[in-house]
Amino acid sequence: MNKKFVIATHGNFAAGLYHSLTIIMGEQPDFSLLCAYTTDENIEIQIKELMNSFADEDVIILTDIFGGSVNNYFMKYIEQRNIHLVTGVNLPLLLEIVCNKHLPTDEMIENAIEAASHSFQYCRHLDYNIANEDF
Length: 135
What we know:
Elements: E1 3-10, H1 13-25, E2 31-36, H2 43-52, E3 58-63, H3 69-75, E4 83-87, H4 91-99, H5 105-117, H6 128-133
Parallel strand pairs: 1-2, 1-3, 3-4
Helix pairs in contact: 1-4, 4-5
């Protein structure tokens, strides 16, 4: 099954994430963006129009914050078989998803979340010489 991806965030965060993603991985034609609250257009209408644009694809929606209005509006669609909603989007998560688009959807999402969770580091406690060797 084909996969489509949506990055949906408050403000222009989605556009910034996508721009960073394309610098590293190139253009991603299967991605759509929703930068909520950047225009006067009603967010629910924007989301409904976006969701109506998809056919039989798996749709992976990546939002910025659990419990936030953007995520909450998309929650109305998660009962549909082909809708997958993930919150806490960040660049490591997007990179993992793009690199593993070929995997089955559930496996791709679970692996990406696991891998991205290891990207959080408090660098003050890292040995600079060891960390510097990785670069």
